[in-house]
Design goal:
This protein is an all-alpha fold. 97% of the residues lie in helices and 0% in strands. It contains 1 helix and no strands. The longest helix has 102 residues.
């Protein structure tokens, strides 16, 4: 093997090394780009998740308010029914007392 052949082989190896280095740098750049895209997607998904959690919290609050209003409505209905029954009972007592007064005199 001559010195010229060794030099030629060395130059080919240096060229291959440079190509490999460029390919590696390109691959690193692609990985960085892909990583940035992935991280952007993750950030977007986290923002959407937060938005959905806010909406869910609002819906839960609305549901609690609705249930509270319904409970208040039911309580008002029961209170009105009880008052009506009490009024009817008092009226009946008064009628019985009046009837007793009529029959006793």
């Amino acid at each position: 093997v001559t010195l010229s052949e060794k030099r030629e082989t060395l130059e080919k190896l240096l060229i291959e090394r440079e190509k490999a280095k460029e390919l590696l740098e390109a691959e690193i750049a692609n990985v960085r780009t892909d990583t940035e895209k992935y991280l952007t997607q993750v950030d977007e998904m986290l923002a959407k998740q937060e938005t959905l959690q806010d909406v869910l919290a609002q819906l839960e609050a609305m549901e609690r308010e609705k249930n509270s209003k319904e409970a208040d409505r039911q309580t008002a209905i029961e209170t009105a029914k009880q008052a009506k029954r009490e009024k009817a009972r008092k009226k009946k007592q008064e009628e019985q007392a009046a009837a007793e007064l009529l029959f006793s005199s």
